[in-house]
Every structure is written in C-alpha cells, then in structure tokens.
Write a structure and sequence with these properties.
The protein is of the alpha+beta class. It has one domain. It is 47% helix and 22% strand. The protein contains four helices and three strands. It has helices at 6-15, 49-56, 58-71, 77-85; strands spanning 18-21, 27-33, 36-43. It has a three-stranded antiparallel beta sheet with strand order 1-2-3, with helices on one face. A hairpin with a 5-residue loop joins β1 (18-21) and β2.
C-alpha cells in the first residue's frame, strides 16, 4: 500500500490542495480542492520523487525526476498535478 510522502504533503500545502490515499486501486492519491475531488493521480506500480528520496537518496531521486519530466510533456491537469505533487 502506498504511503503519502512528506514531500507530497509539503507540496500540496504550498499549492492549497489536500491529498488522501486514493479510493481508486490503480492510483496513489486523490487530490481535493475545497473538499471537492479534482483528480486521482500517480500509478500505484511506480515510485515517485518522495519515495526515491527516502529510499535511494537525493542524487538518484533528482535523476529520476529529470527523466520523468522528459517523458511527460502533455500538460494535462492530472499530469501537472503529478509533476507538482509527486515529482
């Protein structure tokens, strides 16, 4: 089961949203704005910046972040939220 990292909690606070473990079994977190669900983000089969940071260290996490940003360029709302909150 996924645990929301401190990195994600801090980023959520910065942009004024609330995050909770997703009710969708294929997603990591549900994102809420003023109590309303606005997105479910983060595939459960993959790690994220906060997880890499905790498990592998900053240098490795930074490299994974760079590669993630190169792969994801559509700028949909879900993708943008993932970049801000998870990466």
């Amino acid at each position: 089961m996924y645990h929301i990292t401190q990195h994600t909690r801090d980023r959520a606070k910065q942009i004024g949203v609330e995050v909770k473990i997703s009710t969708n079994p294929r997603k990591k977190i549900d994102v809420f704005k003023q109590g309303e669900l606005i997105a479910s983000i983060g595939a459960t089969g993959y790690s994220d910046y906060g997880t890499y940071l905790k498990e592998e260290g900053k240098a490795y996490a930074d490299k994974r972040r760079e590669l993630y940003h190169k792969r994801h360029t559509q700028n949909t709302m879900n993708e943008m939220l993932s970049k801000v909150l998870l990466w």
